[in-house]
Automatic annotation (TrEMBL), chain A:
<feature type="binding site">
    <location>
        <position position="227"/>
    </location>
    <ligand>
        <name>substrate</name>
    </ligand>
</feature>
<feature type="binding site">
    <location>
        <begin position="103"/>
        <end position="107"/>
    </location>
    <ligand>
        <name>substrate</name>
    </ligand>
</feature>
<feature type="domain" description="tRNA-guanine(15) transglycosylase-like">
    <location>
        <begin position="24"/>
        <end position="377"/>
    </location>
</feature>
<dbReference type="Pfam" id="PF01702">
    <property type="entry name" value="TGT"/>
</dbReference>
<dbReference type="GO" id="GO:0005829">
    <property type="term" value="C:cytosol"/>
</dbReference>
<feature type="binding site">
    <location>
        <position position="200"/>
    </location>
    <ligand>
        <name>substrate</name>
    </ligand>
</feature>
<keyword id="KW-0819">tRNA processing</keyword>
<feature type="active site" description="Nucleophile">
    <location>
        <position position="277"/>
    </location>
</feature>
<dbReference type="GO" id="GO:0006400">
    <property type="term" value="P:tRNA modification"/>
</dbReference>
<keyword id="KW-1000">Mitochondrion outer membrane</keyword>
<dbReference type="GO" id="GO:0005741">
    <property type="term" value="C:mitochondrial outer membrane"/>
</dbReference>
<feature type="active site" description="Proton acceptor">
    <location>
        <position position="103"/>
    </location>
</feature>
<comment type="similarity">
    <text>Belongs to the queuine tRNA-ribosyltransferase family.</text>
</comment>
<keyword id="KW-0496">Mitochondrion</keyword>
<dbReference type="GO" id="GO:0008479">
    <property type="term" value="F:tRNA-guanosine(34) queuine transglycosylase activity"/>
</dbReference>
<feature type="binding site">
    <location>
        <position position="317"/>
    </location>
    <ligand>
        <name>Zn(2+)</name>
    </ligand>
</feature>
<keyword id="KW-0472">Membrane</keyword>
Amino acid sequence: MSFKKALSAASPLTLRVVAECPVTKARACDLVLPHSAVSTPVFMPVGTQGTLKGITVDQLEGLGCHICLGNTYHLGMRPGPDLIEKANGLHGFMNWKRNLLTDSGGFQMVSLVELSEVTEEGVKFKSPYDGKEILLSPEKSISIQNSLGSDIMMQLDDVVSSTVTGPRVEEAMHRSIRWLDRCIAANKNPDKQNLFAIIQGGLNAELRRTCLDEMTKRDVPGFAIGGLSGGEEKDDFWRMVTLSTDHLPREKPRYLMGVGYAVDLVVCVALGCDMFDCVFPTRTARFGSALVPWGSLQVKQKQYAKDLQPIDPDCKCPTCKRHSRAYLHALFKSDTAAMHHITIHNIAYQLTLMRSVRQSIVEGRFPEFIRTFMKRMFPSRDQYPSWAVDALASVNVTLE
Amino acid sequence: MAGSRMKLELSRVVQGRSRLGVLTGLGRTGQHSLEVPGCLLYTHFGTVPHLTQDTLHTLSDLPSVTQVTLSHVAEHQEVLEEFKDGFRKFAGLHDTVLYCALHDPAAACATGYTTNKTVSVWGSGGRIELTVAKFMALQKTVQPDWYQSMADGETWQSNTSRKRVRKSVDRTLAHLDECLLEHQKSQELEGVEVFGVVEGGDILEERIRSAKETAKRPVAGFCLDGLQTGCMEQALRTQLITAVTKELPEDKPRLLQGVGRPDEVLACAEAGVDLFESFFPFQVTERGCALCFDYDVSPDPERAGRAPPAVLELEENRETPVVAQQNGDLNLDERTQMTSFEIDLKDKRYQDDFRPLVEGCGCYCCKNHQRAYLHHLLVTNELLAGVLLMIHNTAHYLGFFRALREALAGDKLDLLKRRVLREGGRQTERKD
């Protein structure tokens, strides 16, 4: 479907499944959003405060990124939705011409701030800047995201840590459904902004099933798999992921939140996920950790002081085309630009990985890709993480 | 020493002092040139602060000479020696002339470590002591196109005795002679230019002595040291530079170290300085400020293709120009304190100011972003603030030097001074 056609269909999101892996649950799709088309599987870098740390929008565009994240909690605090609206939305404010996804602020409620109280109304918390009490309700979250003008908005969900068990998990799951409905009702721009639901239910298969059954009854353009990637056992993690994708509609995108390690990405694509986000690649870059097909490289370590190779000789990113590990190692002692070089490389790594994954799905050789990928990443078979082996086996990929 | 390829071609000399021209014959193959008065490209270990090559090259007309300092390089001597192919290649630099200086002009320098035979630089791991031998070994591994000879410039403290100043002159001359000796013996430094360093603190006689003596040596040009911002009033600096340049050959360039503020640049260019270090935009960036002073003196403000940069409003409660300090007191605050040439983007007034930093500025930052966004980035401590500000501040500063050259060419120096120093009334506000 052409880009123009897609827009005129009056839906701010269209998903076209381009290829499906006959062996695993993986798909390659074209996701058409208001600002541009996105090829999936896709990794979305996180630009929390209306910027990807140290990187200009031109550089991000140059790396082939078509969608990145902004953070409703942070931006809602500073500079606030009113100012951003005046600036023509977050796109206008940061001058990003492609797509933006904003989360609801829910996760930050749990991870960052002193949580006062979660009630049916919303999440009450204390502002870290002036100590005032603020209520983040589904309506408020959507209102902020409407002001931000993101192409994809996330519902406010009742976020519970994945390590929590007991009745709280069930309560949160049911509340998330009710909050989804309130978010849908509150969305002022359904023709321009896509609201995604977030499947909850913790690590409880039954609860997850209930949530899936209920949420898929709502006509939302996409679904996120939430409540995972929070420190739970990987063995539980992948089972919830695959359970979720089993019960999500084929023709809508599946967004697995908070997943960004290379192995996790490849496995979860095999389990049927299309979209991913994670702060890890960009955050670890600032500590000098460069991502490579065989793991990672701590550029600040002494062993690289005289290493004249680029980070990855096969990488075509601006950093690897021009600079050696030795130069970057030394530069870390002199200037912040060292971080930017690694950030660029890590984003390039993630985007290239997903591009290769997609290509292999399109060409019908994804299982082979997985095997090659794992061989490169781990020195030997017995170092393959067992959860990954199990997860892949569940979708018919055996690793020798 | 092999015939110097570096040539200063002067097209104008104004009132016998300020000069306009081109420094040609730069680089190993002599194909680069640098207009004077002009500035060098300031770097930290070969990197313009905050910038990767992509962001750096959003700037047009970069100075053809890149400055690197031993304070950043010295601790990597071993690595560079093993690398063998010189700093330029090691850093993946673009096609540029490489100038190697001793001290980072933007970094405060601790005192008390200089001896008759050594000077010290401070790397990330602490103090590194340099003898001439080590200094020259470093030059051989860095393989610059041109470097300043080792110098003792520790004369900026207020209680520097005459004896100490005299010593700095003597030592610096001794270091120069040793450097030149080693230079002439070294194959690796064939074709590399050396600048002598004129010292003398704030003592006129010593300054003249240093200049006279240094001029006797076969150097390609002269660095003027010990005159940095914060160290003395501009009036004294002008007096000293005027006296020094009288003793220096007209056809060799003069590089002033440690001075970068626009008002000081103008005064020193008038006094006969050709080259400056461009660390000032970096300092402005680090304090979250943006250069915005007006330097346009063209007759038609709406000249085709380029609108003049202008301060968009008369800033109330502006910082007054930095008050001069007592002679000899290195006021470190003066090096880092905000000047009247910039705006403080952290100020609340920019929160919802959706105009570019400077109207008409063609830099990447001004073409793509607004004051409100920069304000947000600074308030939230985001790394991108440094990137964008460095781009803009560098662009603005380079534009200022271009304006200076044009003013000299068109006999408009006085007009430029009035514009930059904002004497003679309000800035006009440009309508959008």
